[in-house]
Amino acid sequence: MTVEQHTEAPPLAPPRAARRTKHPGRDPWAGALGRVLREGRPFLRARRGVVVRLAGWSALEFGQTFLGGYGVARALDDGFLAGRPGVGLLWLLVAVAATLPAGAATRGVFGRLADLVEPFRDGLVRRAVARALADALEGPGEASSGAVSQVTHQSEIARDGWAGTVLALRSFVFTTAGALAGMAALEPRLLLVVLPPVAVGVALFAATLGPMAARQHAYLTADEAYAGYVGQTASALRDIAATGARDEVSATARDLTLRQARAARQLARWSAVRIGATALCGRVPPVVLLFAAPWLLDHGLTGGALVGALTYLTQALAPAVHALMSVLGTAGGRLVVVLDRFTDPVPPPRPDPVPAARAVPPARSGGGAPRHEAELRGVTFAYGPGARPVVDRLDLCVRRGERLAVVGPSGVGKSTLAGLIAAVVPPDEGRVLWSGRPAAPVEAASVRTLLPQRAFVFSASLRDNLRYLRPGATDREIAETVGALGLGALVDRVGGLDAPVTPGHLSRGERQLVALGRAHLSTAPLVVLDEATSGLDPVTEARVEDALADRARTLVVIAHRPGSARRADRVVVMDGTHVVCGTPAELPALSPFYRELTGVPGRWPGTGNR
Ligand SMILES: Nc1ncnc2c1ncn2[C@@H]1O[C@H](COP(=O)(O)OP(=O)(O)OP(=O)(O)O)[C@@H](O)[C@H]1O
After folding, report:
1. How confident is the model over 373-417, as pLDDT tens digits?
2. Which residue ranges make up each domain of the chain?
3. Taking residues 453-462, what's their average pLDDT?
4. Is the distance from the beta carbon of residue 610 to the nearest atom of ligand 1 less than 6 Å?
5. Atom of ligand 1 at shortest distance to CA of 408?
6. Low complexity compositional bias: what residue ranges (predicted)?
């Protein structure tokens, strides 16, 4: 069997949510920050009173910092080093007393913080819910799955990020101001030594903000894509199991998890750079000060002022810088990225149920479309790792519009082959293509109909049973199917198309006729019958096959009687050692097994065809 067409599948395309870039080519930090500031300004303006009260409570931190270092310097210079321990103790008491209002200040700050944080979060949740409702109103099932992540996970990230940023920024501003004011009061030249490493560290830190935001963006996008995919597959578990798409779906989920892990690793790398910047701001200035101490002492710096400056650097500035940078680098970055998503005018689209590259368009003939409805390339399949393959490195083309019969002894693998062609059975090796593209089980209903020997009829009207694969079928189309398949007698017997059908009251052949009627009404261009006519008489079987071949254009029949093979354009013979394919005229010369089979009239003996 020749393989006439090779179409390489495009690489696995990421789900749409993961591909989304709102401003391709732009620094996401700049765009996102601008948008967040624009959105945030009216929020803060409306809460000016809260901001002022917060600043009022925070001013206590300024005094505490200022007096902390200044008190130590004076205690040494005017007290202990000057031989006046009483004065020294007094200044130390002043420094300690400055810390006393800290408890009240913290209480006041957190009280005001709640007034800024809770309305902020409520606003985000309201926005996400409103968007989800708007999406849902667009059409059933259109609600954005990202909205769930926004209402739960992302709004919490935003709230924590916002609270952390406000706390750290406020503390940094008032503590740094207190420390710098204290050093300026002790000896202005101290600032010449201390400020350069702090400035370099801040600059380096600022340089990491853009890449960090981009990595945060990638991480959240991966998180959304994963959440969306899992949400979709959770509601489609039955379909996935029924169509044998489990491996496909778990492969995609694994791919999304790996993408998430990759994004987390990149984020961690940039965090390392940020830690370096933090060290430059917080740890280097005391070291530089100690190096510069001899020069400063020669130029009038007192011993007390030196210790006071070290107190500022180690007890106030370093912790404040560290807190600010770690909060801005983590919670702040996440905040900007999450807010960017909340302010996004375009709702995050749902990830594709299967990778986009695997979407299969309805097969159409002509116009340069592939000539094969289905194709197996080097397909191997075994029921278990140690089992002998039922199908071994098989190449097979099902040409568009042809009628292909499959024959062979019982247990040789005909049903397995039908399952492989219909993508119900995933191959261990090789590929199954539909119209030149990888077969996608989740979207299979629009491409192929597979009917097994055991037909499924449910308790509903005959009309509902018939239009199961095509709910929108019109009365005229149903009437055509009834006529083409000779279902009139059955319709009359059950009391009309709208009469309720009790499956147990139908014979095996009648149930098969109902299932075949469904396949006839379906618009899928490929129909695979796995002994689906075994309960019909030969005349009805021939009529049904002809009607399906006319309607569906491509028909694969696991043959039950010699007639199916004779009517076929080509026949695949599986004899257990070889797979041979040819026209009914060619095959007697090619396959002794086929010769033997067709030499026996009626049902084929030894084939297991019941
Ligand atoms: N789920 C399964 N687990 C393990 N082995 C299986 C399974 N299904 C089928 N087999 C085995 O795989 C082989 C091929 O089975 P398959 O049903 O494809 O053959 P077949 O030609 O369609 O048989 P028949 O004509 O009797 O329906 C058989 O040996 C069968 O016992």
Report:
1. 899 999 999 988 778 899 999 999 999 989 999 998 888 899 999
2. 27-351, 359-598
3. 84
4. no
5. 21
6. 355-364
* Helix, strand and coil in the chain, % to nearest 5: 65, 10, 30
CA 133, 136, 139: angle at the middle one, nearest 5? 150
Element (H, E) at 373: strand 372-381
Task: Record the tokens describing residue 578, joined without a space.
Answer: 């070889």
DSSP assigned state of 316: I
The CB of 413 under 6 Å from ligand 1? The reply is yes
Gap from CA of 410 to ligand 1 centroid (Å)? 8
Check if 106 has its Cβ closer than 6 Å to any atom of ligand 1. no
Q: Are 392 and 415 in contact (CB under 8 A)?
A: no
Structure token pair of residue 289: 């000060």
What is the per-residue DSSP string for 491-521? HHHHTSTTSB--GGGS-HHHHHHHHHHHHHH
302 bridge partner residues = none
Give Cα separations from 203 to 288, 330, 519 (angstroms): 18, 17, 68
- The half-sphere exposure of 601 on its side-chain side, counting CA atoms within 13 A, is 0
The answer to whether the CB of 534 is under 6 A from ligand 1 is no
> With the CA atoms of 473, 478, 479 and 485 taken in that order, what torsion angle do they form, in degrees rounded to the nearest 10?
150
- What are the φ/ψ torsions at residue 557 (nearest 5 degrees)? -120, 120
Rounded Cα distance, 531 and 544, in Å:
13
Domain spanning 27-351 has what CATH number?
1.20.1560.10
Centre of ligand 1 to C-alpha 529, Å, is 16
In the CATH scheme, what architecture does the domain 359-598 have?
3-Layer(aba) Sandwich (3.40)
For ligand 1, whether the C-beta of 411 sits within 6 Å is: yes
408 in contact with ligand 1, CB cutoff 6 A: yes
CA distance 145 to 147: 5
φ and ψ at residue 570, rounded to 5 degrees: -140, 160
* Closest ligand 1 atom number to CA of residue 607: 25
Say how far apart CA 103 and CA 86 lie, in whole Å. Answer: 28
CA of 418 to the centre of ligand 1 (A): 11
Q: Which residue reads 């021939």 in tokens? A: 542
State the distance between the two ends of the chain, measured CA to CA, in whole angstroms. Answer: 29
Instruction: Write the secondary structure of 434-466 as one string of H (helix), E (strand) and C (coil).
Output: ECCEECCHHHHHHCEEEECCCCCCCCCEHHHHH
Three-state helix/strand/coil letters over 560-577:
CCHHHHHHCCEEEEECCC
Find the 233 Cα to ligand 1 centroid distance in Å.
29
Is the Cβ atom of 416 under 6 angstroms away from ligand 1? yes
Say how far apart CA 239 and CA 126 lie, in whole Å. Answer: 34
DSSP helix/strand/coil, 283 = coil
What is the rounded distance in angstroms from the CA atom of residue 473 to the CA atom of residue 481? Answer: 10
